[in-house]
Amino acid sequence: MIIRPATLADRSAIFAIARAQSDRYPHLRMDVEKVHEGLKEVITGKHFAYVAEDGGVVRGVLLGLVSDNLWAQRQNCNIVLWVSEIPGAGAKLLRRFRDWVKSTRYIKVAGMSPDLEVDRRALSLARRIGFERSGGAYLLFN
Can you tell me the distance from the alpha carbon of 87 to that of 52, in angstroms, rounded to the nearest whole number? Predict the structure, then answer.
């Protein structure tokens, strides 16, 4: 297993993972063009985009979108996709995200707001590596 920054060559694999997750939202219709353009921006911009690769196949991803924060002087980064089919890779992706946030001085707060049923082990992992539960969100302050 390899954890590495996503490249533009990974867009199709990341899109397939995102499409599979979109089925969890039956009332929303995926905008295919918007997702493809968004993936390009996330991978090439100041955002966080890492993949987990096994045998040359991308089977995990964590994407974090950096944006302005209405309440703080610095920015925030919201996890919009965190999925892995490789045992242990989800934890490695989240730790890599945490380390990136801590090394990135322009981000004040990062995290996720799970809106669906999430495996409780993932939320427990987030707390163990430094995320704080705040309401329904799991936040990492920098």
Answer: 10
- The CATH fold assigned to 2-141 is Aminopeptidase (3.40.630)
- The domain spans of the chain are 2-141
d(CA 111, CA 94): 10
pLDDT given at position 83: 94
Taking the whole predicted model, whether its pTM rises above 0.90 is answered as yes
The DSSP result for 81-112, as a single string, is EEEESSTTHHHHHHHHHHHHHHH-TTEEEEEE
Query: Which residues, given as ranges, of the chain have pLDDT below 50?
Result: none
Using the structure block, give the residue that is written with the tokens 């009332």.
27
CA distance linking residue 99 with residue 93, whole number of Å: 10
Q: Residue 135 burial (CB < 10 Å; 0-12/13-18/19+)? A: exposed
Token pair belonging to 73: 């002087």
Position 114 scores a pLDDT of 83
Q: Which residue has the tokens 């919009």?
A: 80
**Residues forming a β-bridge with 132:** 139
